[in-house]
Design goal:
Elements lengths: L2 E5 L2 E3 L5 E8 L8 E6 L5 E7 L6 E3 L7 E6 L4 E6 L8 E8 L11 E4 L3 E5 L2
Parallel strand pairs: 2-11
Antiparallel strand pairs: 1-3, 3-8, 4-5, 4-9, 5-6, 7-8, 9-10, 9-11
């Protein structure tokens, strides 16, 4: 069965960095877009970033553009999110999601599996 397991979350200071990983199994990883989304306390789910199935294109929400970088290693069935210049507003539970198709989108309806999430807290 499809499994998505996130890791790498934790506590970071403002201006610091974290690298999230999502290990995937149970499907042909290289045939699906992957995305990261987050949910802050008391707020709705926010799409953060997505990457094409072959890694040829990446997309970002305006709130993280220039600070976060998504990448994937199809040989390892893993997608990453490098987060730099972290802000307190980045505090959230971060999820990875498996896209239905090749190309990512910012709509949750285009994703059929989600991980359990990894907590990121940005605080001094």
């Amino acid at each position: 069965q499809v499994q998505l397991v996130e890791s790498g979350g934790g506590l970071a200071q403002p201006g610091g960095s974290l690298r999230l990983s999502c290990a995937a199994s149970g499907f042909t990883f290289s045939s699906h877009a992957m995305s990261w989304a987050r949910q802050a306390p008391g707020k709705g789910l926010e799409w953060v970033s997505g990457i094409y199935s072959d890694g040829s294109a990446t997309y970002y929400a305006d709130s993280v553009k220039g600070r976060f970088t998504i990448s994937r290693d199809n040989a390892k069935n893993t997608v990453y999110l490098q987060m730099n210049s972290l802000k307190p507003d980045d505090t959230a539970l971060y999820y990875c999601a498996k896209g239905i198709g090749l190309e990512p989108s910012d709509s949750t309806k285009d994703y059929d599996y989600w991980g359990q999430g990894t907590q990121v807290t940005v605080s001094s």
